[in-house]
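new request in #modeling-help
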Amino acid sequence: MKTNMIRAGIVGLSGYTGLAVLEILLKHPQVRLTYISAHTTQGPVGEIWPQLAGRTDLTCEIFDVKKAIDQCEVIFLAVPHTSSIDITPPLLQAGKTVIDLSGDYRLKNAASYEKWYGHKHTDAKNLKSAVYGLPELYREKIKGAKLLSNPGCYPTAAILGILPTATSMTEEIASIIIDAKSGVSGAGKKTSPNLMFCEVNDNFKAYKVLTHQHSPEIESYLNQAAGKDLTLTFTAHLLPINKGILETIYIQLNKKTTAEKVHSLYSKFYKNEPFVRVRKLGAQPELKDVVDTNFCDLGIAVNEAGNLIIVTSVIDNLIKGAAGQAVQNFNIMNGFKETEGLL
Amino acid sequence: MKTNMIRAGIVGLSGYTGLAVLEILLKHPQVRLTYISAHTTQGPVGEIWPQLAGRTDLTCEIFDVKKAIDQCEVIFLAVPHTSSIDITPPLLQAGKTVIDLSGDYRLKNAASYEKWYGHKHTDAKNLKSAVYGLPELYREKIKGAKLLSNPGCYPTAAILGILPTATSMTEEIASIIIDAKSGVSGAGKKTSPNLMFCEVNDNFKAYKVLTHQHSPEIESYLNQAAGKDLTLTFTAHLLPINKGILETIYIQLNKKTTAEKVHSLYSKFYKNEPFVRVRKLGAQPELKDVVDTNFCDLGIAVNEAGNLIIVTSVIDNLIKGAAGQAVQNFNIMNGFKETEGLL
Amino acid sequence: MKTNMIRAGIVGLSGYTGLAVLEILLKHPQVRLTYISAHTTQGPVGEIWPQLAGRTDLTCEIFDVKKAIDQCEVIFLAVPHTSSIDITPPLLQAGKTVIDLSGDYRLKNAASYEKWYGHKHTDAKNLKSAVYGLPELYREKIKGAKLLSNPGCYPTAAILGILPTATSMTEEIASIIIDAKSGVSGAGKKTSPNLMFCEVNDNFKAYKVLTHQHSPEIESYLNQAAGKDLTLTFTAHLLPINKGILETIYIQLNKKTTAEKVHSLYSKFYKNEPFVRVRKLGAQPELKDVVDTNFCDLGIAVNEAGNLIIVTSVIDNLIKGAAGQAVQNFNIMNGFKETEGLL
Amino acid sequence: MKTNMIRAGIVGLSGYTGLAVLEILLKHPQVRLTYISAHTTQGPVGEIWPQLAGRTDLTCEIFDVKKAIDQCEVIFLAVPHTSSIDITPPLLQAGKTVIDLSGDYRLKNAASYEKWYGHKHTDAKNLKSAVYGLPELYREKIKGAKLLSNPGCYPTAAILGILPTATSMTEEIASIIIDAKSGVSGAGKKTSPNLMFCEVNDNFKAYKVLTHQHSPEIESYLNQAAGKDLTLTFTAHLLPINKGILETIYIQLNKKTTAEKVHSLYSKFYKNEPFVRVRKLGAQPELKDVVDTNFCDLGIAVNEAGNLIIVTSVIDNLIKGAAGQAVQNFNIMNGFKETEGLL
């Protein structure tokens, strides 16, 4: 039976994202994990991460491109930004499928990448062919992808919250404000003074105001979907919780609409999506409805006097905003049931 | 020496606000607390609230209007909305000064009060003469007030964040969005299923979207300051923390401006205010900078391409948003140093 | 295929425990959920609990004993203490299997039940035949149980932490102290003033000192395992978190031992247990290692100078301490793989 | 007026303790802060710590022993362990008074210091003359101290919880177990991977089991008070909160006693202490009763069947466990009212 399963590997187990991919794939009925590696920690998985003791015999190694090629058909890259650019080309050249969870292949414009990530992009060829893995937007393209660029967490919640409006009410949109709030795991597992417990607990703040690298990602994919340049402002805030993103999205229209119309638009748009749920009018999604799941839940309200749509969009930043969406893409790419391993 | 001190009373000790007034007044050098009462708890203060044991000999009683009149010159009302309307008239008639921390005398329009608070307003006379206690806006009026209506927590942060723009850039404002996030004590000390620990912890959500009773309060005082009707949208969210409000305020302009200009406007506007601090450009205020203090801290950013001002405003909802501001008003009304008991 | 699956029902969905059973059974490959009921909420599951929308078509009903009998082979009771006594007899009489997660059938002595739970026990017959569902202690008995009494959360962590010592070092034990700390969900989903967010957050306290109803449960099963009366003291504390129990257990001996000996004893004792993991000497288990899993992790230390064993025992109070253990028992009772649906 | 005030300095502002001393001294009516320094941050206080903007004009400098001597009469050392040994001698030699909040002068035995702190103690002379600043134990000695060694946070709560028993029931004590739980600020403001928000939040664990450096401190002062060697075991745990320590102390007796007797002993022992409050029988102290205050609250229970006293002791680790107690000592040393600046 095992011979039919996909042999998958994960590179970058030291971070929260890599570990989240591991947790999902361990239970995925179509996957045999054959290779895992991390830069900072090596050894039996159960000794490094006690929560996994007794659940797997895998051993975490230093990354070795040859081993990865030998042992896997699909490789999930959960490495820091800029590392994927180095690792991806040889894997693709060896005919492997790459699902990259870093930001390296998200911005199609190399100059934009350099501006927002502070590094030159040296893999123009693959940057062009990479498919942006938001199933609700690019499901067909994803089916044939060899290099899948998995969306950022903020962009996932933002684009799903805006997409129906951007595509169906394009000309009526005057401007969009995304007021985003994220749990701390969104910042990755880095040892930074301002991510220490006493600095974050009982606290709340905006950060990277007008300078967040997810801003151009949101903009470029929404502009493409809308077929025109939208006026977008994105503000990130740090919530004193581990997991979860809530974005309150204000879409300013230049003409009247009603709550019913907008709600109906969103409901129809996502009717067949397995992982997007639109709440009924008057209800608001909460983080706890989606944390530890691959769902994105949306709430709709309209300030009719002000021609203003208010969409609230919630996801688990590590699941639908990273590892879960990566597996959703993996399922699509392999012709599996899209919810396999995710429900 | 004690004879020069103001004899003050607090009505409504069962809630967070009343207790916060008590904590401040116990240390206020010009105040002698002579009367305290609560609806749900009576007895020696140190037995009801162990944290106050050994710090005061006061006894908490059932409210008795005659006793309050006999024993106090100034009465702080920290009772639930609609109770102040009953208690205030006899106190004023007896020549006492009333500082009301409820919402009962904030909305000058009785019809608006009925709409948003769900009760008829039966004290039109005092509603008219009540002074709205935001020192930064009405310091002169406050000096002579007999009935001081202390602002709501959300409105305090919102109005202070918008006031310089509303008064100096009035014609340039197209619309304003206030995305507000509050700690749980802002909801008062009520036993509600959705305020239980397990429901709030690790969670985050928007609530009362487009229906929050602080919305008309913000609107009416800003409209008055601006001299015109502004287009305002207010959204409240519940943070998994006890204390603190952060509001991210988006002021959409209809013409260009720069971050420097706006920052300079705010800095000058609040230059002499003892409790408003404007951060330098590029810096963002955090809740922990103001929690347990009477300060309101403001951060300024401008998305110049989008003609959008982003003001972040933080306060402690129980201090500058309630008890501290009440004492600041008390100081102004009595000619004391405005910071007395608050620094 | 579905015809081979066990038809199972859950009574008492309004609490945290019932919902946790539901979450596990929805993914259990051998179970078809055919009936769910709750006292306080009825309707489609996805409307009552938005997190379950799109994952099940079940409808929650008012409990009806006939329906439960008609539609299920096994019924999980997640009702409040004292309710199980009423519901269980007719279900057993109809030949159904009952897995009771309440405390009603845990204390074999009816007088003890009355003392600690404050109610007369009116089902002496079934009380006698009920099997206490701690697999590590009673696996063989569980196989044939018709009424399974699922252990309390504190007792699960305590008994697993003490069992090897109680059975193998019986005569050397002078006394045992269990210092237990639990997350808030352990208190159930009740709306109590002292479980409100602001009362629990940033706080910590001991509660029900020397009067906790889990104390006699721990005592009776350990005494039985030891074959003598142990001197036990149990103290509960409330952690400002949702899920998880850590118990620091001090076993005072009357003669010398070493850390290595005790560690070796525990390691051997639990060698074949799928859900108990003993950390290597020097390592300590943390809540995050077991939360959301059915594992109990144990840490061992010995103060050799004081003849004192220190065992730290951690579980998720809703999983190994309730719903997960119930399903583990269900698996044993039905001859399924013990880890089915739990890994 | 200012000429009568004590000129005080603080060395080591980068940590939580130094900042807590600063916060208290800023409001102390008998203190003029004349010098503050920190290793890692220099500049105007209001720019480094925004929460202090508008409250002081002080500038934080690199430590310069000459400046400290020139500008201060009393110097508070809030530096890391081992640094105080270098700084203290020249200050004392210049006739200054030193209040040391580090662990450097707490263990009278230099060998013990070396064992537990990992460094040789090079100031034997002052180690001998240093006075351990627990007012409830050494008030008279403190009055004449030139070098005051401020107690550790865990030892403060532990010794206060055990002292009445250790001195009045000495011969009846068989052994003592201290199960201690602390908020994260107790670990100091260091950037450590296991103190990051996501590692501590929603988590709980024991740490440094049997190896904590506060263990010998507790032991030596209690042994001295008891006049004999007690058998003590101390276990520390990390609470997911910023501030506060609760210790559950189990005092095993070798003969019977009653709750009333023990409660009466404690009540009398602390009757005149301004900062120790004994709860009435049946009540338990909570962290929130003492956080942000200099109080230590004690709860008493007795398991009469097991001859076991259970004392719960709570303090704010940064106040009574550090900065507040330092100022309490400062008040005693200077003949001020002991509660000055602390109530």
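bot summary: The interface with chain B takes residues 175, 177, 179, 181, 199, 202-207, 209-210, 231-233, 235, 237, 239-244, 246, 248, 250, 252, 284-288, 291, 299, 301, 303, 305-306, 308, 310, 312 of chain A (CB under 8 Å).
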